[in-house]
Every structure is written in structure tokens, then in C-alpha cells.
Amino acid sequence: MSFTPFARRLLTVAANEPLGAYRLLRVNDAGGPEPQAGQFAMLAAAQRWGGGDDERPYLPRAFSIARRREDESHFLLEDVGPGTRRLCELSAGEELWSLGPLGRGFAPPRDGRRAILVGGGAGIAPLAILQDSLSQQASVLVGFRDADRVPGAGLLRDAAIATDDGSAGYHGRVTELLSEELANDPHAEVYACGPAAMLEGVRAMCARADVPGQLALEAPMACGFGACYGCAVERRGGGYLRVCVDGPVLEAGELAAVDAYAGAPA
Amino acid sequence: MSFTPFARRLLTVAANEPLGAYRLLRVNDAGGPEPQAGQFAMLAAAQRWGGGDDERPYLPRAFSIARRREDESHFLLEDVGPGTRRLCELSAGEELWSLGPLGRGFAPPRDGRRAILVGGGAGIAPLAILQDSLSQQASVLVGFRDADRVPGAGLLRDAAIATDDGSAGYHGRVTELLSEELANDPHAEVYACGPAAMLEGVRAMCARADVPGQLALEAPMACGFGACYGCAVERRGGGYLRVCVDGPVLEAGELAAVDAYAGAPA
Amino acid sequence: MSVTFCGLSLAHRVINGSGTFDAVAARTVFGEQLERSFPFAAYVSKTITLRARPGNPPPRLWEAPGGLINSIGLPNKGLAGYLSEDLPRLSGFVAAEPARPDDPKASAAARERALRVPLVTNVMGSTADEFCTLVDACDSHEQIDAIELNVSCPNVSTGLDIGADPTALGQMIARVRPRTQKPLIVKLTPNTADAASCAAAAQAAGADAVSLINTLRAMALAPARANGRPSPWLGGGTGGLSGPAVRTVALAQVCAVAERVEVPVVGMGGVETASHARDMLDAGATLVAVGTASFRDPQAAARIARELA
Amino acid sequence: MSVTFCGLSLAHRVINGSGTFDAVAARTVFGEQLERSFPFAAYVSKTITLRARPGNPPPRLWEAPGGLINSIGLPNKGLAGYLSEDLPRLSGFVAAEPARPDDPKASAAARERALRVPLVTNVMGSTADEFCTLVDACDSHEQIDAIELNVSCPNVSTGLDIGADPTALGQMIARVRPRTQKPLIVKLTPNTADAASCAAAAQAAGADAVSLINTLRAMALAPARANGRPSPWLGGGTGGLSGPAVRTVALAQVCAVAERVEVPVVGMGGVETASHARDMLDAGATLVAVGTASFRDPQAAARIARELA
Ligand SMILES: Cc1cc2nc3c(=O)[nH]c(=O)nc-3n(C[C@H](O)[C@H](O)[C@H](O)COP(=O)(O)OP(=O)(O)OC[C@H]3O[C@@H](n4cnc5c(N)ncnc54)[C@H](O)[C@@H]3O)c2cc1C
Ligand SMILES: Cc1cc2nc3c(=O)[nH]c(=O)nc-3n(C[C@H](O)[C@H](O)[C@H](O)COP(=O)(O)OP(=O)(O)OC[C@H]3O[C@@H](n4cnc5c(N)ncnc54)[C@H](O)[C@@H]3O)c2cc1C
Ligand SMILES: Cc1cc2nc3c(=O)[nH]c(=O)nc-3n(C[C@H](O)[C@H](O)[C@H](O)COP(=O)(O)O)c2cc1C
Ligand SMILES: Cc1cc2nc3c(=O)[nH]c(=O)nc-3n(C[C@H](O)[C@H](O)[C@H](O)COP(=O)(O)O)c2cc1C
Ligand code: FES
Ligand code: FES
């Protein structure tokens, strides 16, 4: 395992492109560290981080590394508040601070299982780099609130799409697609990232089907490197895990239930 | 006397141009209220006011109205901290909040006296609109730290220039020019705005020469409309005046001395 | 949707924090607009003391992250000056009951009923006797609807604020209470271990309401050190922090106080939006006061009242 | 330019605030880089209690204007777990004495002398007996250089923090003092009317140093009201505010405390830059601690130390 550089790095925005309702933030990162799939970075605009709604943001924000190209790191952003808003408005040439890659990423499938990637909303981000890194062909199931968000699926190859409102793809929840997949062939390992309710659905389904699941969680974070103890999620059997250092990818079996605060923006 | 509109107005930047080391901020203000020379406005960027050095600015900032054109109001800005920095970086089309015009402006010269306008640094701003409004030809004396700032004098017609470092115009203080002018013809009224030391020099000189002086003061302000009592300057004979409602233009004779905090950035 | 507070009828739930809006100065600046649509449902005067005070030497302000430190030093004309010069200029203000756009039954007229703005006079004494004199004078002036006691004044024996010590606070209020029937609002200090106990003491001694928070004791050093020696920036040495920076501290104290007392609570501290005001109301406040936010936007209170409606 | 604090030799004047840097986790994340160039001149552990604590239910964080409210709830492995699991992993850190670029005489080697990072263990008991047990254990572990007492713990009889009441605080410290020769640092609570009196009581009872400020009591309500009912956002109900928002409050308390006591003061609260640190030192602090700023930038303390040099 390689360590995280012990300093924020000042990186330059290469491009910030709309991807439906999302933004794809491309950051110049030639020579930067190589992330594992599932790892994240703490990002903050170098200028005017603050001064948004309620005089925020103040702390950096966590984002999954969505893709790593030779010269660039890519992040998929959804504007849900003052921090994401500021990052969404950055344009090419502007700078941001990045600390990372942080956290424990995804592990390869066990026992020759096939990989099923299940993503919801902006939670598809870490599945893109995961798909890039898998040696096998994986099933990819992604769910979005509506058709405006479906362009996000462009980060993934051969994705089956569901929307909550039926405006594109399958009309319903992505967990329904997962349920079919698992019924067809349960010798699988599930990789999931998305809203808390989706993750909880996946967790419960994995438990019932006795299928290993790796869930990439989210949590309010102040530091991202184990310093603040703010990113706690309940561990099965009592106590808490820190999403930033014990995760963000956690074994479905390690969790009691996925807390309402521990998922991606829906 | 007309009243100030009882609400901030959201105005759009028409242009933000360098004027040597200063910026000339031109704001679309068609149909806006007509200021008196010497009045000011409280300005704040509509977006990202905050998030600069030390998580500031928070409060709006006071700026003399430097020129009023049919469709525009003009401000002369010097970047001295997080508030002026944010305003200096606004570009055409961006919005700012403006409350004003505020305060008591300059009064016409008394007893057929000729007007001598004395400005220092960014303190030349209210003298520009004053020169526009005077019916007579006035002597204009302006001092700057160095030649980089001299382009600011472009706001004024026929200005005699002094620089502290001698890099342009007269090598010395603008008060030395004033002293000559008053020696030549003391039937004058002095209008001054600039750094505290300059204002104090002008005040003392007016007192000695028994010449009326109108000094446009500055002070740290939170509100600009008499609410906070933060902008106090010492009144001759005891007590304090509020620069925002009793001034910013105050009779030289009303002041004990010009406090170090009560002038423009040098 | 007018509101009753200590028997007074208010157009809405948003008032000003003492010392953060000078209606006399604002009338001069903004003219009649101010009288016709006063932004606050009640007007709280700045703190009046027995004798006139010039206030602290400048500088009096320091901008802090998300807030402001002030060291104004309670400049005021003194009781006599206030009564003779200011009081006559503090009537005639009306506040519009904010329209509730989603209520089709209410007629525009009913929705925009203009209500007279009650006047709350805020006073501070340096002794209980001084408080008594101040309260007596307010009691005898019909135009004053309620009295707010600023108890952030140093106790001569301990040096601490009277308001920080439940026992001293209760004793002072008990002295004052019998002297007037007018509503007595006690403006608590937040610089205490336990605002709720102070509120409880105020209630027990007969306060009709409590208001909080006043500013948090704070300080800044001058950025350029004169002769290399560090010195306080503010002319008054230390000052009080207000604005968004204190909002979450204020909410915790308002919540703790509202849980402890029965009397109505006026919540303030960093309120800038209707959502902040709703937090205060949800935490148990009956009214919300806006202070520092008015400096940024003199219509902040009116906007909040409209959005709350 | 190494510094002596309570007899300990420190590479510079910047240490961490308890609970804001987990050196064990950081070693796992950042590897050997952390050991070779530890950002703090001394390492203060998070608060250790007698028994293990899981901490508060999530959410534990709320971002405030210019700051952060935390309601972490002191999760820790308990005294035994700390001594057996963490203590062995808390040695071997060295801090570089920051180079002073403008001093031509100092050789690069002398300017960059690496100093061992002393270990301060922060403990909290719910009774004086518990404090005694905790201090005894720290006393008998050679690796622990100093003990910080977190006195922001509720007094069972009054419900207030022990640290908010000078008398209760002095009594507790007097019980603990005779049990160790190691430096005792008392971490004061800012949620009090008079931090200086608390500091004086701590000094009189034998404290070797005081540190402040801890977090200000604060609260936030959940933005989306579950079933329409207002509820606190934080799993722990209320929390503590830190970061730039509290800096001016911290400076006022540090200044008041440093004026009152002789023992060295560790100043903290919102320090993010060398200029903020210099303010703390000018206000009378001997050391400066960095907390929340490390979350934004794990090198914040090292940067500050370098700029102070
Ligand atoms: C490991 C990890 C990976 C992530 N990856 C991605 C990604 O790839 N793409 C992506 O778009 N997002 C990702 N996120 C989520 C992202 O970090 C958050 O959306 C972001 O932090 C929100 O910040 P904000 O300021 O925009 O919104 P906030 O205002 O912080 O709102 C976010 C939510 O926090 C709560 N909230 C509201 N106000 C406050 C407050 N004052 N303090 C605390 N909480 C508040 C509310 O529930 C709100 O819905 C990831 C998060 C983690 C932990
Ligand atoms: C009536 C009036 C008219 C004015 N007209 C003009 C004009 O036409 N053009 C122009 O350029 N300027 C003008 N000014 C001055 C202008 O308002 C100030 O330069 C501006 O407010 C500075 O804000 P800032 O954030 O950029 O700098 P700040 O950081 O606020 O610095 C300004 C000064 O304030 C002090 N200071 C530093 N930190 C703080 C703090 N945290 N809190 C309080 N004070 C601090 C220091 O002395 C510093 O030098 C005018 C001021 C007044 C009152
Ligand atoms: C400039 C200023 C002056 C103040 N003067 C007084 C005063 O005279 N009497 C008083 O009781 N409170 C005074 N306060 C405190 C406010 O009424 C209010 O309690 C505090 O500012 C918190 O609210 P805010 O954050 O909305 O400003 C003053 C506050 C400020 C900022
Ligand atoms: C997330 C977090 C956890 C903390 N945990 C502790 C703790 O365990 N013990 C303690 O004495 N102080 C604790 N503190 C308080 C800090 O040590 C410090 O006193 C306070 O945060 C002010 O400094 P700052 O503004 O630099 O963060 C904690 C603060 C934060 C933000
Ligand atoms: S985010 Fe700080 S410990 Fe995980
Ligand atoms: S700036 Fe507020 S009273 Fe003058």
C-alpha cells in the first residue's frame, strides 16, 4: 500500500464540463499519486472558499476520484450546497487544494465472483474508476432521479439505467435491477455507491442473498484523514467506524444499517 | 435635501478598469438617485462577499461616489484588504449591492472664496465629482505615494501633482503645494480628502491660516446610516461625531484632530 | 397573523437588537419611507444610562470572521436627553403585517394591516438604585411600552457582569419589579456558564420576558504594531462579538433558556435569514431580534418577517 | 530557537489541540513522512477516559460560519486500551526546528535540528477519584511527558462543567496535584463568566500551565425537519464551536488569563496563520495550539511554525 502525500497539493482546473445536471471537474494532475478505485480527495477552491450561503463553505469537501488519466484526475460533482456550488463554478486555470488520495478503496472480487457495480446519482463516480481497474467485464447498474442526470452514466461503459420517474431507462429503483441480476446468478460480488436508502437496500439484499458487498459510504467529513472522528457510521455489533480511514469502502457485513447521513446526494 | 432609498439596490458592473494602481469601477445606475458631491455608498459584491483573507469581508465597504454619469456611477478603488480586493476583481456583468447615496457632502464655497481641492491617494475620488459640480474653476492639488498611482489623477482636470518619492510631479507632500497656494491667496476654501496625516496637515493649516476647510473623512464603518455608532471621530470640545451621518464631510473647525484611523488608504 | 408579546400587539415576530438601529438617525437618512414601513415590529432603543456617555474612543469596530466586534461604549444622551430629545421623535412608526402570499382568503388589506410599532426602552444602571431611577422614568412616560434591562454591567463588588450571576441578577430585578407595571424584559449576558439559570433567576424575580444573546466578549490586536508593541485594536480594549459567527452559540443558549423558563424569550444572535429566525422560534423563542444583519442590509428584518409569514 | 515549556524542550511554539489530530491514524495514512516531520512541537492526545467510550451517534459535525460545531463525544479506547494499544505507537515522532531563513549565521544543520516530540496525554474523569486514577497511570508511564486535564466535564451536583467553577476546579486539581511530578496542564472551559478566575484557581491548586480555549457550547437544528418537528442536527444534541469564528473570543480569554496567572498559557481557538499565532503570543501565551485548522490543511501547524520563526 502506498501512503498519501502529507500535504495538500495546489492543482489547476483543466476543464469543468456539464454532464447533464452534474459537472465533470477535470484537474491537471500529471505526476500526482495513483489512487486506488474507491479512494477520495478533500477538495477546496484556493480562492473564495467561503462567502456562500450561511457564510460557508469553510471545510474542504470529500469527492470520489472518478477517473484517473495520465495527466488528469476527474471528479463528478453535484451542486447540493455552498461547497459543491463553489467547485462547480471553477473554470479552467483556476486553482484548488487537494489532499489525497485518501481512504480504503475497493478490493478485487473474491472466489472468482463476477462484479456487479450498482450506482445511484453522483455515487456512480467511484464506479467509473473501478470499472477501469477491473480485469473482468462487470455488470453496471445505475439509477438516477430523472433523465437530466442520466448523462452522468457516460462515465461508465454498458450501464443499465433506471430512473425514479421513468423519464429514461427502467422506471424504478436500481435495486430492483440488482435483485434480478442476483436472482439470475448469485455468484457475484456487489460494489455499490449511492444515496443512503439505496446503500441500505443493497446491504440488506446482500445479507439476504449471502453475497459479499462492498459499499462506498459517505459521511459529513471535516478532515478526511482520521483526525476529527466526525465521519462515524455505526458498526455491526456496536461502536463506530470512521468512514475516512476505515472506509469509505466498507464490507456490507460490517455495517448494522446504512445511516441516513451516510450516502451520496440522492 | 433628498432622502436615501431605504433599501440596498442590486446593480450591475458596467466595467472595471485599471487606473494605474487603482481600479475604476463603473456601475450601471440609470435612474438611480443623484448624489451630492462628497456622498458615499456602502458596496458589497452580491456573490462571494466573504471567503477572503481571515474569512472576510463580512460587512459592506464605504466608497465615495467619484463620478456620476447619466447611466453610471463610478468608484475609485484601492486594493488594501479583503473587501476592496473582492470589489477590484468584479468584472462586467457581475452584481453588487449598493446602499446610498449616504452622508453629508460638500457645501459650496462661502463668501465668494475660490475652491482649492486637495486630494491624497484614493481620497481624490470625491474631489472628482466635486470638481464636476462646482460652478467655478478650482485649484486642484493631488498627492500620491508614487508614479504608479498618478493615473488616478485622470479623474480630475488640471491637477497639480506631487509624489512622496518624487517619481512624478512635485517631490514632496501635497500639503506643501497647499501651503504655497494659501500664501499666494488666502481668500479660499479648502476641500480635502486623503490619508489621515494629510487631513490633519490640512486641518492644522486651515486653522493657522484661518481659512475654512471641508474635510471628507473616512472611518471604519459597519452600516453607513447611523445605526452602529462605529464610525466615531473626536469632536473639537469633546464627544464624538459619526462620520456616516454627521459627515463624511466635516468642517475642519469641528474636529479636534484627525485621528489616525479617519483617513483614506495612503 | 399579528403577534402578542407581553400584552403588546406586534405586526410580526421580528424586532431589532438594542443598539443596532438608530431610528432617529435613520429617519434623517431615509425620510418618511422609514415611518411608513418600519422594518421591525417593535423598536428597541439603544441602551440609555442615567448620565450621558460619549462612548469609547475609536476605533470601535473590528471585522471578525463572519461577524463584528464592537466596542461602542454605550454612547447616549443620558436619561434626561433621551426623554426630551429622542422620545418625541420615536413615535409615528408603523410596521406592515407581512403579506402571506399563499393565503387566498386574507384580503390584501387584512394582510397588510399596518400596526403601530411599540417602543421598548433599553436601560442600564451601574447600581440597583440607578436601575430604579431609570425604570421609574420609563414608567412615567406613556410612550414607552416596555422596558428592557441591559444587565451586562459590571457588578462593583465582583467585577463580573451582574447578569452573569443568577443571585445578583435576581436581587437587582426584585428591586426594580415593583416600580412598574410595564413589561420588563431582561437582556441576558451570554458570557456566563449558565444562561438558563440566569433566566430562571430573572423569571423568579418577576421579569416578563428575557432576551438573548448579547455580544460575546472578544478582542483583536492591532495588525500593525505601533512601536513594535502589541496593543489592542479597539479603543475600548475588548469588545463584543456579534453576527453569524455567534449564531450557533446563540441558538444553544436560547434553546437552553426556553426549556427552563415559562416567560417569552426574544432570541437573537447572527440571524440573517428567515431560516435562521425559524431556528430561533423552533428553539423556543417568541420573537426574534435582528442586529448586525441590519448593518449589511437595513431591510434584513423586513425581508425575514416577509419570508416567515 | 527551541522553546522550553514546563521543563520540556520543544522545537517550536506550535502544538495541536487535543482531539484534533490522531497521530496513530495519521501514521497509517501518511506513513513515515509523519514521523520524520511531525507538524507539532508536542503531541497532545485526544481525551482519554477511564472506561472506553464509543462516542456520540452521528451526525457529529455541523459547519458554522467560519467554523465547525463538533459533537464527537470523546470516543476513546479507555485508559487501558490507550496505554496498551496507542502509547506504543506514539513515540519516534520528531519535529524539525523551523529554519530561520534570514539568519545567515545559523548553519542549515543547526537551523533544522530535529527534536523529539514530547507526548502530552489529555485525560478527563467524571469524578476527582477518576482523575486521580488517570493521573496515576500517566505518572507511571515514562513515555508520557505531561498531563493535560480536560475539565469540561459536568459536575455531578450542579450539572455545570467543573472547569466553569473556580472553587470546584481548585478542589479537583488539589486532589490530583500531589500524585505526580509531571507537568499538569489544565485545559480551561470557555463557557464561563470568568476564565481568568478559573485559571487563577488552577494555578493556586498547583497547575503548571493552563490551556484555552476549549470549544464554545453551540447548537444547530436539522435543516430538513423530520415529520415537521424541529430537532437538533447533532446526534449529541449540542456541540462545541471551534475555528476562526471563535478566534476573537479566544484571544480575549487568553489575554485575560495571561494577565492573571504566572504559569505558562497555551493559547488556542481559530488559529490558522502565523499572524493569528503571533496575536496569541502577544496576548501572553507561551505556546499556541492548532485544532480545526489542521482539518483544512494537515500542514497548517508546520506552516505557522515556519512563518513564526
Ligand atoms: C468519501 C466521499 C465521497 C464523495 N464523493 C462525491 C462525489 O464524487 N460527487 C459528489 O457530488 N459528492 C460526493 N460526496 C458528497 C460531497 O462531499 C457532499 O455533497 C458535499 O460535502 C456537500 O457540501 P456542500 O457544501 O455542497 O453542501 P452542504 O450544505 O454541506 O449539504 C450537504 C448536506 O449536509 C447537510 N447540511 C446542511 N447544512 C449543513 C451544515 N451547515 N453543516 C453540516 N451539514 C449540513 C444537509 O443534510 C445537506 O443536504 C462524497 C462524500 C464523501 C464523504
Ligand atoms: C466615507 C468613506 C469613503 C471612502 N471612499 C473610498 C474610495 O473612494 N476609494 C477607496 O479605495 N476607499 C475608500 N474608502 C475606504 C474603504 O472603505 C476602505 O479602504 C475599505 O473599507 C477597506 O476594506 P478592506 O476589506 O479592503 O480592507 P481592511 O482589511 O478592512 O483594511 C483596511 C484597514 O482597516 C484596518 N483593519 C485590518 N483588519 C481589520 C479588521 N479585521 N477589522 C477592522 N479593521 C481592520 C487596518 O488598519 C487596515 O489598513 C472610504 C471610506 C469611507 C468611510
Ligand atoms: C454595534 C452594536 C451595538 C450594540 N449596542 C447594544 C446596546 O446598546 N445595548 C444592548 O443591550 N445590546 C447592544 N448590542 C447587542 C445587540 O443588541 C445584540 O444582542 C447582539 O449584537 C447579537 O445580535 P446580532 O448578532 O444579530 O447582532 C449591540 C450590538 C452591536 C453590534
Ligand atoms: C473535532 C474536535 C474534537 C475535539 N476533541 C477534544 C478532546 O477530545 N479534548 C479536548 O480537550 N478538546 C477537544 N477539542 C477542542 C480543541 O482541542 C480546541 O480546544 C478547540 O477546538 C479550539 O481550537 P481550534 O479553533 O483551533 O480548533 C476538540 C475540537 C474539535 C474541533
Ligand atoms: S473525516 Fe475526520 S475522522 Fe473522518
Ligand atoms: S457607520 Fe454605523 S453609525 Fe456610522
Draw up the topology in text.
The complex is a heterotetramer, with two copies of chain A (266 residues) and two copies of chain C (309 residues).
Chain A: E1 9-19, E2 22-28, E3 40-45, E4 61-64, E5 67-68, E6 72-77, H1 82-88, E7 95-102, E8 114-120, H2 125-133, E9 139-144, E10 159-163, E11 170-171, H3 174-184, E12 188-193, H4 196-209, E13 213-216, E14 232-234, E15 240-242, H5 243-246, E16 249-251
Parallel strand pairs in A: 8-9, 8-12, 9-10, 10-11, 12-13
Antiparallel strand pairs in A: 1-2, 1-7, 2-6, 3-4, 3-7, 5-6, 13-16, 14-15
Chain C: E1 3-5, E2 8-10, E3 14-16, H1 23-30, H2 32-36, E4 43-44, E5 61-64, E6 67-70, H3 78-86, E7 94-96, H4 108-111, E8 114-116, E9 119-123, H5 128-139, E10 146-150, H6 166-176, E11 184-187, H7 195-204, E12 209-212, E13 216-218, E14 239-242, H8 247-260, E15 265-268, H9 274-282, E16 287-290, H10 292-296, H11 300-308
Parallel strand pairs in C: 3-16, 4-9, 9-10, 10-11, 11-12, 12-15, 15-16
Antiparallel strand pairs in C: 1-2, 5-6, 6-14, 7-8, 13-14
The structure holds flavin-adenine dinucleotide (FAD) (2 copies), flavin mononucleotide (2 copies) and FE2/S2 (inorganic) cluster (2 copies).
Question: How does this structure look, described?
Answer:
The complex is a heterotetramer, with two copies of chain A (266 residues) and two copies of chain C (309 residues). Chain A is of the alpha/beta class and 266 residues long. Helices cover 17% and strands 31% of the residues of chain A. Chain A is built from five helices and 16 strands. In chain A, strand 8 (114-120), helix 2 and strand 9 (139-144) form a beta-alpha-beta unit. In chain A, helix 3 (174-184) runs parallel beside helix 4 (196-209). The mean pLDDT of chain A is 96. Chain C has eleven helices and 16 strands. Chain C is an alpha/beta fold and 309 residues long. Chain C is globular, with a radius of gyration of 19 Å. Chain C is 31% helix and 19% strand. Chains A and D meet through strand 7 and strand 14 of A and helix 1, helix 2, strand 5, strand 6 and helix 10 of D.
